[in-house]
Each structure stands twice: as C-alpha cells, then as structure tokens.
Amino acid sequence: MVNSPLPHRFQQLCSHLFGKLALLLGSLLIASQSYSKQVDVHDPVMAREGNTWYLFSTGPGITIYSSSDKVNWRYSDRAFATEPDWAKSVAPEFNGHLWAPDIIQHNGLFYLYYSVSAFGKNTSAIGVTVNKTLNPKSPTIAGKTKA
Asked: pTM of the entire structure?
C-alpha cells in the first residue's frame, strides 16, 4: 500500500480554511462593534473650535455631537431647545426638524445657518443663529436668532 499525501494535504487545507473562517468571523465581530458606535446623521456639517470638532446635523433642534479625534463622537446637545418661534408662520406644516445646517466663522463669531421647511412643500425659510462658541455647554453663548 502506498501512502498518499491526500489526507495530510486535506488536513492542511482544512486548517487553512478554518483559520480564514476564524479571521473572517473575528473581523465581522470587530466590524459589528465599530458599527454600533457609528453616529448616524443627515446633512452633516463639521467645524473645529480649539481641540474639539463639532458635528451638526438635520434633526429636532439641530443635533450636535463633539469629538477630539473625529473618530469617537459623543452627543453634546441640540442647537435649539425648541423650534424657532417664527417657523410655523413660514411653514405651517413644519414638524420641528431643522434641515441642512451650515457653519461659517467670521470676525470671531460662528454663524449657524439652517432651513425651516415641511417635506414636499414650497414654503421654506433660512434662519441663522450667531454665537461666540460652538460648545453648547459654554456660558459665553451669545445666541441671537434671525430669520
């Protein structure tokens, strides 16, 4: 009887495939953990003040997240606790979601522009709020809201 290398080769192949499968499963586990920490935002805009990055997004009151490394984000607050008092006069079906924020820094102030609208309607407006800082927890918020 002649010994065939097939059983040994079969063991090597199985070992190799098992190792690849273990790597794949490990990668999927790591990926699923990283996705669980993902920040889902719509119409994002990002700006930096000092060592902190701020991410603003469409949503009730404009949602704000902050990060020191642009990888690990934490919920900070909303730009507005309530909807602008003038919003319903412009868009009667406005549901509280402020859309498409944008940030510009000029002469030491941050200008946060946003849209007020009702989905599928042609009644919309652009608002702006002006602050000395992007940090919603700062006592130096100068908030003036204009339509």
From this structure: 0.67
